Amino acid sequence: MTEFEALEKRISVRAYEKRPLAPETAAELQAAVDECNAAAGLHFQLIDQNAAKKPAVKLAPGMFSGEVYTCALLVGPEGALGGEMVGYFSEKLILKAVALGLGTCWVAGTFDRKSVTPELGEGEKLWGVVPIGYAAEKVPLLQRTIRSRIRAKDRKTEDFVESDYPYASLPAWVRAGAEAVKAGPSAVNQQPVNIVYKGGLVTTRLWKEKKNEMMYNDLGIAKYQFQVGAENAGVRGFWNFGEDGEFIAE
Questions:
Q1: Model pTM?
Q2: Separation of alpha carbons 162 and 159, rounded Å
């Protein structure tokens, strides 16, 4: 499965089977965690309780069902830049998990923080967690209802773009990137990031008037999603970090 295929398949999974991962699958996830940490100086940690069949994190029972024995702890620097980097590389990790046939969910607040004990260096914090497991074939009504309520708040794809040009006349790769942003998860369940296309430059903007640090997780998530979508449309590139950081097409 390609990264773009994983992007198209990914949903926020709130119901999991009580089934441990195969050791080789857990090893691939650990390699992906190590890659993210090495690339950005992050401190992501993979909790693997598969052998013991012990839940790796206590998720809010009203929001989730089932149990997960593997969980990524998203540890990174404090502050807006740290939050953005955590969001960006967490999405890279999530798409890897989906490509392995697993379900995930970006969880910022609906878990018991006392149930995990991350290693924290100076100036670091636990931004959130990503439970990783097998999606249940039959999703309980409560979790289906929660998902439908969250998705009902979705904006139209063209609402994700600010430009001097009509949406339909934008370059195909910019529209593909915006579609990928819309398909992504959100740490605050609001997707507060717009893609800005003006003067031939692509940047971003947090459109919420009241900002908080968690929105910078969403900024990083949106940037990674855009990058994957644009590349699938034929334009490869990379982002400069920061809210007004530019997307540089190679």
A1: 0.93
A2: 8
